[in-house]
Amino acid sequence: VSTMILNLLIILALLIFITLVVIVVKNNKSSKDTSYPHQKEMNDSQSTYWTESFKVQSDEKRKDMIDAEKIGFLKLSLKDDGLIDLKHQLNLSNIQMDVLIQEAPKSLNRLIIDFGCVYDHDGDEDVRYVPVELSTESVTLNFDQAFFCCFYLADREIYSYNISDRWSDENATLEQAYKQFTQKLAILLKQGWKNYYLPHDARYAVSCEERLLKEQQHTILPNQSILSFEQFCNCLEGELHAIDLNLYLDGIYMSVFYDDAFSVSFEINKANNLLSYKSYCPEGLDDVNEIEAYKVKAKLLRYKAEQEARQHGFEIDESYIDPI
What span, in angstroms and rounded, lies between the C-alpha atoms of 53 and 300? Predict the structure, then answer.
């Protein structure tokens, strides 16, 4: 009898051990699959628009990030109440927003909106695209396949957004990419965006556009029109491997950096905020703390830059007046 009881106990112990092993294996598999069910749905149809509230990242994640893995559409604003609108849209409490702002790197005053990722059939991570709409006082910008977004704060006011958008598939031909490039740029030109020179930069004449393209210094839209296919190819195949534009409209200046992978990085800034220029400031301007002082010093630097440009045979657009 004692032998039978011992055997039964051994069998029972083995069954308990096997059950525990099965539970551990299942937990490991589920922990590896960090995707949300909706992400697989959105992989099939990126046009699915739906919104859920953000959640503040857990402590082990970066503290300058807002978790947006569950969001399918994002509406942003560069108006004065942009931060309030964003907080309401995302159902963030005042305390949550305060924590995010306090924990953001003080040197940058930046918060990143993390769109997360999607997973293919093999379980590999891929970029998740989210449609984004950004409103200014006069226009609305649409980013149909945004995959990165961050914003910069000063005194609880958003003065700048950085958004990365895909205009063409990476495997597109140059002809296909050019067609989509012209369609997107035509929308911006129709809205009224024009060539813009940072206050300390030389005001190159449009007649210098070809030479500037060849020397990979900068891109100027020729007579507010779109680059030719040849110019488009030369930019992407040149040293910079990109098209670099500065545009302005109604108190907003925008940097557009289109690279040879056919994605675009936008920096959209309030032109009357000094912090919008800090990352571009050359030596001698990085210690300026007021926008008016910046304008005075920038004017002197522009004079020197234009003198040097003339010595190298460039023409200067004397008729260009700074919109700010």
Answer: 48
If phi over 0 gives left and psi between -120 and 50 gives alpha, with beta otherwise, what is residue 91? left
Phi, psi of 214 (to 5 degrees): -65, -40
Sign of CA dihedral 266, 253, 86, 292: positive
CB 296 within 8 A of CB 304: no
If 0-12 CB within 10 Å is exposed, 13-18 middle and 19+ buried, where does residue 197 land? Answer: buried
Question: What is the reported pTM?
Answer: 0.76
Which strand (E) or helix (H) includes residue 56? Answer: strand 55-56
pLDDT tens track for 184-193: 999 999 999 9
3-state DSSP call for residue 250?
coil
Structure tokens at 278: 């800090």
Q: Pairing relation of β-strands 125-127 and 252-259?
A: unpaired
| DSSP codes, 108-177 | TTEEEEE--EEE-TTS-EEEPPEEEEEE-SS-EEEEEEEEEEEEEEETTEEEEEEEEEE-S-TT--HHHH
Quote the tokens at residue 289.
Answer: 């703390």
